[in-house]
Amino acid sequence: MSDNRQVPIYYINLQSRPDRRERMEEVFSQRGLRAERIEAVTPATLPPDCRAAFEKADEITRLEDAEMACLASHRAAMQAIVASGAPAGVVLEDDVRIARDFGRVVGILAARADFDIVRLETYQEQYRMAEPAQPLGDGFTVYGMAEFDGGAGGYMVTREGARRYLAKGIDPTVPADDWLFNMQRAKPRRLRALQLVPAVVIQFWHRSPDGPMTMDTDLQAARQRRYDRQGTVFKNGYRPLLFRELRRAYFKLRNAGLRLRHGNPVFYRCVKPHVGFADDLPGQPAAGTVAAKADGMSTI
Description:
Blueprint: E1 9-13, H1 18-31, E2 36-39, H2 48-56, H3 65-84, E3 88-93, E4 96-98, H4 102-110, E5 117-119, E6 129-137, E7 140-145, E8 154-158, H5 159-167, H6 176-181, E9 193-197, E10 201-203, H7 217-230, H8 241-261, E11 268-272, E12 293-298
Parallel strand pairs: 1-2, 1-3, 5-9
Antiparallel strand pairs: 3-8, 4-10, 5-8, 6-7, 6-11, 7-9, 11-12
Helix pairs in contact: 3-5, 3-7
């Protein structure tokens, strides 16, 4: 499959946000792409299986209802890909911009058979990825996912990959982006998860031509409520250095054990590239080919 028009594109959009729908439709038109809207789930419209899992979960550890609805929305997009019969599909949230090369890169990825899911998005940060790098041509590369970087704004997943994600069941304690890309969380065994560099998707609030924007207020407020409820927001500056270092070592060992448990590699050669965006952004040029910093053997 080499024509990106054969790759279904789905975008998740709340019925209450027609403004975002209009903007996304305009972006698709500008890029010569066709996309299908997935109506986002709300706390009031949670599917029965998601609602049952949510209500049975511990009230301290479970997600907020808005976060659970977000997870259910991404599950719905995965279900659409499985039902489409296409070998792979793309899922986008409705608050993203897409690069000019988006369609071409999707077509290149669609012709490959060496992944289950590819994260197309960036937060423009530098973090560890597993080698070897796999060049796609024209300055684009994919790396193995290793260190978790938040966000589920854009990704491409194979039909079999989507089926395997859905078969893992519903964990009402895991946000959508952790469910997709945090390799220390439960994943299908031997999941082939990749990161595109530079990325072709970025959330709109990250660089807005209309001035500073905040993150999605509803979801961010829900996250903050969960953090407060779980007592997971701490100021490192108030902790002794020894305590911080011991805590860091504990989490590295714990994460290594979780990777082993889920059938993912514990030791691997890694690099630390900067994951830029492929196009110009307001006040910032497009990402070029940035040399990755070798980071040797690592455990995450």
